[in-house]
Structure formats: structure tokens, C-alpha cells
Write a structure and sequence with these properties.
The complex is a heterodimer. Chain A contains 14 helices and 11 strands. Chain A is α/β, with parallel strands linked by helices. Chain B is built from 12 helices and 15 strands. The longest helix of chain B has 21 residues. Classes of the chains: A alpha/beta, B alpha/beta. Chains A and B meet through helix 4, helix 5, helix 6 and strand 5 of A and strand 4, strand 5 and strand 6 of B.
């Protein structure tokens, strides 16, 4: 079957925005999303009336959806989407928005993701996260994603010989990247020893394997190149994107994600290979999923992740620059914004406007998303390759 | 290997009694199919009638062929532990108070992958396990993986004990210990390791054979209790109510005949007075203290057992008014179960086959021997069910009732009297 995807032509992505994260907020999700949108408009110079498309992701926006947000923020739009895909929402938003702009259904689409976080909102979200979570996972220990990823991590370690030190190395490297990123909630260096001796959360996971839920928002803007140039914006081109949902449903436990099905096609569309990539942002709610993405996105073979980790530094100035903002592990997980964080960082790096650690001459960046532990595994995966604009 | 439970020290009266908390109890309606089976002590999963796929978590359609014709079918629960973890952190109070907590991910031989509570004696993954369905403290089905083969003291596993009502080191009230069933039940509960058994007796001038024997057991304390006497029930509750962990209501007033064979309502009223109002009096006096002791340490208040009858399901006309009184008691027991739910105290309804006693003398065999019924009640306390149907007749009627209640009504109308 020939399902070669169309190129994205001159659709570009610009204006990476982060609304600074806070551990807890008394504001609603609308406050963070409004802040992200306002910042996109301010920094791009696009008038509010010129914006005709919006793509929203948020867990705590309920009972509203993107629809309610149009009236809340006084937007009249001809294209609107709401993407409840957690850690994959950034990639999927980019895909949807790019095709809308390419086809002319919209001329400028702001993609925004954000959540608030009250002291009890994380727990409340867990118990009602999905029907399967409510029926078949949350009643069992109520560990939330910690428990799910403990299973995956334990299985991965047993099967592929990964050690706690391997996962620790990624966490320590991300922290070192985060120390330069102004919005990271984690401000102190992390040593491998601190990682290995932190308090246990769900064996084999310890404290620094887990992200800190927080409030915040992320955003970017998708439009045509000539529009971006007219506004004087630096932009990234979209070389290829993929998404997949409920891949490998018959695997008894998740040791690979949808990227393994689709990454060859992504590189073919981009007409590059994994070794051409200058900077990678993976979805990192736990380090095991970082390793899984490194394998499934073709940077090494399945099972060689631990060895790959041992061979690279993962810092912005080292080998295999990876999660150069610090990722969710060090910046924090602002709900659905966690699905944007890596993509927004890649846009920054390839458009030459990093806020923190700089990857020298980053021309090609890969952002990857992973989301929605519906029951026993993450269902949504996606990735995008962006190139520095000419 | 599970360490055997040790007798808890006497409760320190200065310390506050912990308020009961529960595991998450919300379920979709389709998932209640699992609860319906677990209530009868069975593990049942959805099986597609069209393509035979066994699936879990419960769904509204077959995940393979999209058929909506899904049947709940019993499974043996054999499977392989694929991964395991021990939680040290939880988002819910119930588990926070009980950390650490062990969980497993199991690939069942029949197909699906399940997340389950993991017994401490299960070897780390990969290993073979058996999965059972228990009613948990929230009153919902919970899956529990136990070792493939029984291990010593496995009932004492800390997590398992949170899902059973094991009499070991608990204090038990048997409301009527004078009957053959009451006597053997007291002995069975003592043999199961109960700390103390209050053996209730009414009509002290009657001395049934064997009853003397009970008073010689060191764990047994005889207490006067007549369920038809509100004052007596209140007095006893005032004396021991705050210490009862398990209440087994065996009081039963059983006379024969239906409507036409007897004039007046005196006999029917007496049946109701013990079987229905007796339960109501007991519940009003004893349930409040049990409700606040649902999380009172290792030997918390855990269960209330009602001796009903399989006649409660559908009227058995030769014992018509008795059947009605048991049906009334069943309805009240459902109310009691709902009121106990926030405390995590399980209401176990026992629907025995006709007991082999003087009031069922005219019924043909099979009838259930009191000693067998007593063993089944203790087994129910150690297990995960909330509705138990001991004996062949009860199982047979239950099957018929579940298949077609109207057919059972017709069948019972023509049974030999």
C-alpha cells in the first residue's frame, strides 16, 4: 500500500512560548492558556483578529473544551481543535494545525497547552483519568502513572539489562541542562548518588524518576512561510511527522511504542536518517520511556538503549543533546503542557532562540511525544522532525 | 514466606481509633459484572460470544470483532506474572495508611493482561500465579494474585487480610449458639483462631444437647441474647458492642406451612419477629459501633454475616411464611450493606440449602449438615465473597434462579411438600 504522505510544503512553525511554571496555582487553566495565547500574539505581532485557528490541550479546563475557550477569550475562529492526548498532544497539534494551514482552512493557528495545579487536582485527575483507569488500575494501590511505569521499568531492566545508573545518568544530564533553563522548577544540581539513594516511590522507581506535577503552559504558532517572513519571525520547517495510537496491543507489557512502527517512514519523508539529527526532545515522564524512544526512533536497536546511554552524555554541549531544557523531569509536568515542552524546546533550538542551554548549530531537531496511560500502557505516540528555516 | 500473624496487643484506650478509609470504589456499570461474580466468589471475565476472545478490562464491545454479545464466564485465573512493583507512595489515603503495597501485572493464560494486588508469597516476575476476584473494602471486585501453590500462613498476608474477614485473632458474636448450627459454628470459629467468641443464647431454661460443651472452651463466653427483646439486644450491645469484629446472626425462627394450612398470623409474626425484626434490632444496636471500627488496626471490625435461606430468593410454598421472612431479611441486609459500605465492613449473606434439622425433617435429601454449613461460613469469612450459597440445593436453585426466576417460581410451586 502506497501511503506516502504529502510534504508540508511551506507551512512553518514559529513563536515558541512558555508560561513560567509554578508548583501550585490558585488560577484556573483558562488563566494559563490565556497567558500562552497572549504571549504568542505579542511575540509574533499577529493581531488577535488575524488569528483564525486554535488548537487546545488541557486536562483541567473542564467543564470547558476549546469551544468554551473561544468565548472566554473573545476569539472568532474558523478552525478549532481540542486534542486530549496528554504527552502526544504537541506533536498531534502540530500535525493538525499544519494540514489546516496547508489546505487553507486556516491561515494562522495558535497551538496552546496548559494546566493549572491545585494541591489536590493531580489526585482528582487520576481517579477519573479513563474508564479503564477507574475500573482496572487506579483501585489497585492508587499509584497513578508511578505504578504503571514501575511495571514497565522493572520489565525493561530485567529484559534488557538496564541498571538504575543508566536511568540515573539521563536524569542527572537533564538536570544539568535544566540548570540553565530559566523556567525549570528544579534549580539544584542532581548527583547520581542523590538519584540512587532517593526515597523509593514504586520499585524500582525512586523520587527523581518521577516528574513533579505543576501549573504552566506552552504554545507555538503555525502559519505559512510568507506570513512568518512578513511578521519577521524566525521559523522552523516541518520535514516529517508521525502519530500512532494503541500500537502493539498484544504485547503483554509495553517495551516498545508506536514509533517503532512509524519512524522509518518519518525518516523517509524527511529524507534524512537518525544520525543527521542535531537535538532530540523525548517525552520524559520517566527515564525508561526516554530509553524506549531512543530505541524506537532508530538511534539504536531495541535492547541497546542501556549501552547507548552509557556511550553518550545527553547534555546540550555533549554527545547526543537530549531534552536540553531539562525536560519534564527537571522543569516540571504542567499537565498537557508536558506534551508541548519538548516540541517547544526543539523549535527554540532550531530557530536559534534557546532560553537556556544552547546546542551549537542545531539545524535538525526531533521532538517526540507519548501519552495517555489509559490502563497499563501509554497509547499515543508521535514524533516530528523540524529543520531550521532558510 | 508470610510470617504468621501475631496476636495484637490490647488496644490502647488513649489512642484515637482510626477513621475507616476505602480504596477507590467508583466503577463503570459494565465493570460491575466483575463485582457481580466476585460477590459469589468467582472470577469471571467477558467472553465474546462470536469470536471467543476473553477480554479485560471490561468493555462494551469485543476488542477483536466489535461484537456486543459479551458474556461473563468463569476463568481459572492461571497466568504469568510479567512484572511486579512495590508501591511506597499512593495518592489515596487507604493505601497511604497501608504502605508498602505490592502489585503485579499478569498475563492470564486465557489472554488478557491484568493489574492485580500481589500476595507477598508470589515470587518476583517472571513466575506463575493464580488470580482470584475478591470483594475489597470498598465493596467492589478486586483482582488478587496468589502463588501458584499454597504457602504456609498465606491467609496472614497483610494485603490479603485487607480483603478478607479472617476470624483469626478477631472477636466474634454468634447470636444464637444453641442450635446444632450455632454450636458447630462457635467451634469452627474458635478453630479458625478467633480470640473470643460470644455465644448468644435465648430461653435459658432450655438446655439443648451439647450446649454445655461450649462453655468449657476458653475462648467462649456465653451471653444471654433474645433477638425478639429490644431491651436485651440493647443491653448486650452496650456491654460488648464496641469490641465485636464479626457478627454472625444465626438466630432463626422456622415453622412450616404456607397460608392456607394455618389460621391467623401468630406464627408468621413470630418468624418475622426473629428473622426480620431481630436483624433490625441487632443492626440498630450493633452496627453503629462496628461502623466506626472499620479500620481499627489488625483486628478491625470486618464482617456481618446473615444466616438467610435459599428460600429468600424465591418463595418455597411449603414453608411459605418462613420464606417471606427470609426475603424480608434479605432486603434489609441489602440496606445494611449499603450503610456499612463507608466503613468497609462486609455484609455476607448466607443462603444455605435446607439445613438437616427438625424443621426440615419432612424435606427429602440432600440437606446440608450443620457442621458443613459452619465450615462454609468460616470459609466465606476467609474468602472474598459476599453472597454464599452452601450445599447442593442452594447451588441448584441459584442456577435456576439466575437462568430464569419465573421458571423457578413455577418449579417450587409443585415441589413435594
Amino acid at each position: 500500500m502506497n501511503n506516502r504522505r504529502s510534504a508540508y510544503d511551506d507551512v512553518v512553525v514559529t513563536t515558541p512560548v512558555t508560561v513560567p511554571y509554578v508548583r501550585y496555582s490558585i488560577r484556573g487553566a483558562h488563566w494559563f492558556l490565556a497567558g500562552a495565547l497572549a504571549e504568542v500574539l505579542r511575540r509574533s505581532g499577529l493581531g488577535k483578529d488575524a488569528l483564525d485557528g486554535l488548537c487546545v490541550s488541557s486536562f483541567t479546563l473542564t467543564p470547558d473544551t476549546a469551544v468554551g475557550l473561544t468565548q472566554h477569550l473573545g476569539l472568532t475562529l474558523r478552525w478549532l481543535d481540542h486534542i486530549p492526548m496528554g504527552g502526544a498532544c504537541g506533536i498531534v497539534a502540530l500535525r493538525r494545525a499544519a494540514r489546516a494551514v496547508q489546505s487553507g482552512d486556516a491561515t494562522a493557528v495558535a497551538c496552546i497547552a496548559g494546566d493549572t495545579n491545585h494541591p489536590d487536582s493531580f489526585r482528582q485527575n487520576l481517579g477519573t483519568f479513563s474508564q479503564f483507569a477507574r475500573d482496572a488500575s487506579y483501585p489497585y494501590g492508587s499509584g497513578g502513572p508511578n505504578a504503571s511505569f514501575a511495571f514497565l521499568t522493572s520489565y525493561y531492566m530485567r529484559t534488557y539489562g538496564a541498571k538504575a545508573e543508566d536511568f540515573g545518568k539521563l536524569c542527572v544530564a537533564q538536570r544539568s541542562n535544566a540548570l540553565k533553563f530559566p523556567y525549570a522548577l528544579m534549580k539544584k544540581p542532581l548527583s547520581l548518588d542523590e538519584y540512587l539513594t532517593a526515597r523509593p516511590i514504586a520499585d524500582p522507581l525512586r523520587l527523581y524518576d518521577c516528574v513533579m506535577p505543576c501549573a504552566g503552559a506552552e504554545a507555538f504558532l503555525v502559519l505559512r512561510r510568507e506570513e512568518a517572513e512578513k511578521l519577521g519571525l524566525s521559523y522552523a520547517r516541518i520535514l516529517a511527522t508521525i502519530e500512532r495510537h494503541n500500537a502493539y496491543p498484544d504485547d503483554p507489557i509495553q517495551y516498545r511504542g508506536g514509533w517503532a512502527l512509524d519512524s522509518d517512514e518519518m525518516y523517509a519523508q524527511a529524507e534524512i536518517g537518525p544520525t543527521d539529527i542535531d537535538v532530540v526532545a523525548a517525552y520524559d515522564d520517566y527515564p525508561v520511556i526516554n530509553v524506549m524512544q531512543i530505541e524506537d526512533l532508530g538511534f539504536c536497536k531495541k535492547g541497546e538503549g542501556p549501552d547507548f546511554v552509557r556511550r553518550h552524555s545527553f547534555t546540550a554541549d555533549g554527545s547526543f543533546p537530549f531534552n536540553t531544557s531539562g525536560g519534564q523531569l527537571s522543569v516540571g509536568q504542567a499537565g498537557a503542557a508536558g506534551g508541548f515542552l519538548g516540541l517547544v524546546e526543539i523549535i527554540r533550538q532550531v530557530t536559534g532562540q534557546p532560553l537556556g542551554a544552547v546546542v551549537a548549530e542545531a539545524r535538525l531537531g526531533l521532538a517526540s511525544g507519548f501519552g495517555m496511560i489509559n490502563y497499563d500502557r501509554g497509547l499515543c505516540s508521535g514524533a516530528a522532525i523540524l529543520a531550521a528555516g532558510q | 514466606m508470610t510470617r504468621p500473624l501475631v496476636r495484637p496487643p490490647r488496644k490502647n484506650p488513649i489512642l484515637r481509633t482510626r477513621v475507616p478509609t476505602l480504596p477507590p470504589g467508583g466503577r463503570s456499570r459494565v465493570a460491575l459484572g466483575l463485582t457481580a461474580a466476585a460477590a459469589r466468589g468467582r472470577l469471571e471475565l467477558q467472553v465474546c460470544r462470536d469470536c471467543r476472545t476473553v477480554q479485560y478490562p471490561p468493555r462494551e464491545a469485543c476488542r477483536v470483532c466489535l461484537s456486543q454479545r459479551l458474556d461473563w464466564r468463569q476463568q481459572d485465573g492461571a497466568g504469568e506474572l510479567v512484572s511486579d512493583t512495590t508501591l511506597h507512595h499512593s495518592n489515596e489515603l487507604f493505601y497511604r495508611e497501608r504502605m508498602p503495597w505490592r502489585l503485579g501485572m499478569i498475563k492470564l493464560d486465557c489472554g488478557p493482561v491484568i493489574v492485580a494486588h500481589l500476595h507477598g508469597d508470589c515470587a518476583p516476575a517472571p513466575s506463575r500465579v493464580r488470580v482470584r476476584a475478591h470483594i475489597d473494602r470498598a465493596g467492589q471486585a478486586a483482582l488478587l494474585a496468589i502463588p501458584e501453590k499454597d504457602t504456609p500462613n498465606m491467609a496472614d498476608d497483610r494485603q490479603l487480610r485487607e480483603m478478607t474477614c479472617d476470624p483469626k485473632f478477631r472477636k466474634v458474636l454468634v447470636t444464637d449458639a444453641k442450635t446444632a448450627l450455632g454450636q458447630t459454628l462457635v467451634e469452627a470459629v474458635v478453630a479458625a483462631g478467633a480470640d473470643l467468641v460470644w455465644a448468644g443464647y435465648a430461653e435459658h431454661w432450655k438446655k439443648p444437647p451439647g450446649f454445655e460443651r461450649l462453655s468449657k472452651l476458653p475462648q467462649v463466653s456465653l451471653v444471654p441474647l433474645d433477638l425478639t427483646d429490644s431491651r436485651a439486644v440493647k443491653d448486650l450491645a452496650g456491654e460488648i458492642g464496641g469490641r465485636v469484629d464479626i457478627l454472625i446472626n444465626t438466630a432463626d425462627h422456622h415453622r412450616n406451612f404456607g397460608i392456607a394450612a394455618r389460621d391467623g398470623i401468630e406464627v408468621a409474626r413470630a418468624e418475622m419477629d426473629t428473622n426480620y425484626f431481630g436483624l433490625l434490632r441487632l443492626a440498630q444496636e450493633f452496627a453503629p459501633a462496628m461502623r466506626v471500627r472499620g479500620a481499627d488496626g489488625q483486628s478491625s471490625a470486618v464482617a456481618w454475616v446473615n444466616l438467610l435461606s435459599v428460600f429468600a430468593l424465591s418463595n418455597f410454598p411449603p414453608h411459605g411464611t418462613y420464606s417471606a421472612s427470609k426475603a424480608a431479611a434479605l432486603s434489609l441486609a441489602q440496606c445494611l450493606r449499603a450503610e456499612f459500605a463507608p466503613a468497609g465492613v462486609r455484609v455476607i449473606n448466607v443462603f444455605p440449602s435446607p439445613i438437616d434439622d427438625e424443621w426440615n425433617q419432612a424435606l427429602p435429601p440432600p440437606k446440608i449438615a450443620p457442621v458443613r454449613l459452619a465450615a462454609d461460613i468460616v470459609e466465606a469469612l476467609r474468602g472474598g465473597a459476599e453472597d454464599v450459597f452452601p450445599g447442593d440445593i442452594a447451588q441448584d436453585w441459584l442456577s435456576r434462579w439466575r437462568d430464569n426466576p419465573k421458571a423457578l417460581e413455577r418449579e417450587l410451586a409443585v415441589m413435594p411438600r
